[in-house]
Design a protein that fits this description.
With 191 residues, the protein is mainly β. The chain contains 2 helices and 8 strands, in the order ααββββββββ. An 8-stranded antiparallel β-barrel has the order 1-2-3-4-5-6-7-8.
Amino acid sequence: MRRPFVLAATALAACTATALTLGTPGPAAAVDSGPKVARHTVEEPALKGSAKLKRQPGDNVHFTIDAHGFADQARGTFRVSHYFGKDWGGYFKGRVDCLLTGGPVAVATGIVTESHFKNTPGMPEIGELKGKRFGFTVLDSGKNDRLGYSWAMDGVPRKSVGKCLGSAPFETLEKGDFNVDHWMPPRPAAG
């Protein structure tokens, strides 16, 4: 009765030794394992890109954002245009005043410096936007980026928000791409 146990134990030991010897290559074998990939280092957070939102035909909404820098030291520009048919629409643009990133998500805000809209009866009336702060949130998800904006609940941009505040990125893109470079300053040591 002991003999099958000894045979099984010997077979198990032999299989284990073989697996350890022939198994996955160790670190020495991995040194020259193919093309080298350059490491991407980031010295400040950034949000860059342009996109057209996925909407019904004739409802054309475009966003362009170029933001760099951390928190309220951010700088850059943004531009938003919205045209519905040939009779209603316009754009506003401005300067970025805040940017925060967290992995693939960025939240930026900016102050409107220029605004031009053509109002049409039966469509929302866009008032004066110059001087107002709006927020933008981007989820950088490769070919499936998403975007949100602070006036989502209002329907049209009317109310200013605080620095670095935006909504969830609920809109999908028809075309375009945004790139988020995440960066946070080093934290001071506790003590």
